[in-house]
């Protein structure tokens, strides 16, 4: 928040930092980086069949379009996917993945 007692020029980095925080650009940038890391980890075959949701308490929610895909990702590839996300987005602090079946249309 700007200091109302401070009148005069301020560093541009301070002003931009406040603007980005107010507009949520940091969160948007983090989600775009997470999406890119997910797309690379899951591969082209499953990219369109999954949709990332929000991260809550360190758990990334992922929607998938079919029960068989849910089983494959949760039972066989979860560790690999989680590690790929951690490596690509170390600041994301993702501790777990939770999969659910649903619509993945944009």
From TrEMBL:
InterPro entries: DciA-like (IPR007922). Pfam families: DciA (PF05258). It comes from the Bacteria. This is DUF721 domain-containing protein.
